[in-house]
Design brief:
With 402 residues, the chain is of the alpha/beta class. It contains 13 helices and 12 strands. The structure holds pyridoxal-5'-phosphate.
Length: 402
């Protein structure tokens, strides 16, 4: 049986066409894109083409609006730190309680090291942003508002175009961490007010260690990494040419196939989800009507997610416990806590994240194995046994609602 990989929000397989596009840039075309000879100029032309492919995927107005970085984390750091440097008299950040650690740990560090105040806007039980609280958090001291386009744990989509307008009304810049959304949902940045957007190659079948920061023309910017004049002086250091070529190819594939592929992925995800829900005493977390087509976060009541993941892994199935960065910490996910997921479900949440590499056979494999795993674990779960006992004794039924 081939292994089943349902952890595509952690990372995706690099597409073979992406690998093929990259290979010459490790060997024959090894030149430095900044060199003033043929070795360099050929490579510089390929880098230009990759930027154009990314521009097309994002619907950006100009190709020079994209700065290549080492990934989503660097892009997020660049955006926030630059805004604090360039927005005179403004020293506050507005973000959400459900961002990735690539934002949250930065703002925590900024609070501790520079006394920067951050407002963390909350979400409701479906993971939807509290828009009124966001409006109230924005003010004359806000340098930047940063809200993710899609949550990595639940797939919930945020109304970033509307949020950008609101940030501008308060005189602040707007950034979105779109690492999970780019390649899965369409963007047309030229028709939005988004000033900065972060993306990462390895989430869209590109290579790891390469990403991009979209920087709307005219947005003030202070580089995070200083050095040579690369990337129009916005990011020093010799370009990661094979990575850039790979990201360009991944963007080209995503642009060409997004509608058809994401419809297929959504159908597979829905089939998987409906099958799993038949097991009973489990529910889908997040905004089910407004989420990424590939993500399903399912909470199994009275179970430990770690145990489920372990059993799935032994059966050759890879899924994830909330976010990859949180797993192993034994701390319930900050995203699910912000959503006030009840204690009985909080620890049993499993994220299944699909991609174009998945097939119906993968879905059938999980649906064949998971019911038995859940039944076995519930038979061993003291809180499940307690629940069964209460259900069998109607006089104690009030305890179930606690
Ligand atoms: N932002 C989000 C929403 C993510 O899901 C991730 C990775 O999981 C990142 C940022 C970090 O991206 P990278 O791995 O490219 O640094």
């Amino acid at each position: 049986m081939r292994p089943v990989y349902f952890d595509n929000n952690a990372t995706t397989r690099t597409d073979p066409a992406v690998v093929a596009a990259m290979l010459p840039y490790f060997s024959e075309q090894f030149g430095n894109a900044s060199s003033a000879h043929a070795f360099g100029s050929e490579v510089a032309g390929a880098v230009r083409q990759a930027r154009k492919s990314l521009q097309a995927l994002l619907g950006a107005a100009f190709d020079n609006e994209i700065v290549f970085t080492s990934g989503g984390t660097e892009s997020n750091n660049s955006a926030i730190l630059s805004a604090l440097d360039t927005q005179d008299d403004r020293d506050e950040i507005v973000t959400t309680a459900v961002e990735h650690p690539a934002i949250l740990s930065l703002v925590e560090y900024l609070a501790a090291s520079r006394g920067i105040k951050t407002h963390f806007v909350g979400v409701d039980a479906q993971g939807r942003l509290d828009i009124e609280a966001y409006r109230c958090a924005l003010g004359s001291r806000t340098a930047i508002a940063s809200v993710m386009s899609a949550n990595n744990e639940t797939g919930t989509l945020f109304p970033v175009e509307q949020l950008a307008v609101m940030a501008h009304d308060a005189g602040a810049l707007f950034h979105t961490d779109a690492v999970q959304a780019v390649g899965k949902v369409p963007f047309d940045l030229k028709s939005t007010g988004i000033d900065m957007l972060s993306l990462s190659g390895h989430k869209l079948h590109g290579p790891k260690g390469i990403g991009g920061l979209y920087l709307r023309k005219g947005t003030p910017f202070n580089p995070l990494i200083r050095g040579g004049p690369q990337e129009r002086r916005r990011r020093g250091g010799t370009e990661n040419v094979p990575g850039i070529i790979g990201l360009g190819k991944a963007a080209e594939l995503a642009t060409a196939r997004m509608d058809e592929e994401q419809a297929r992925v959504r159908a597979l995800r829905d089939r998987l989800e409906q099958g799993i829900l038949q097991i009973g005493n489990c529910c889908v977390l997040g905004d089910v009507d407004n989420r990424l087509p590939n993500t399903s976060n399912i909470a199994f009541e009275h179970l430990e997610g770690e145990a489920i993941i372990h059993h799935l892994d032994r059966a050759g199935i890879a899924a994830s416990l909330g976010s990859a960065c949180a797993s192993g910490s034994m701390e319930p996910s900050h995203v699910l806590r912000a959503m006030n997921v009840p204690m009985t479900a909080l620890r049993g949440a499993i994220r299944f994240s699909l991609s174009r590499d998945n097939t119906i056979d993968d879905v059938v494999c999980v649906l064949n194995l998971l019911p038995e795993i859940i039944a076995k674990l519930r038979a061993l779960s003291p809180s499940w046994q307690e629940r069964a006992h209460i259900t069998a004794n109607p006089s104690r039924s009030a305890e179930l609602t606690l």
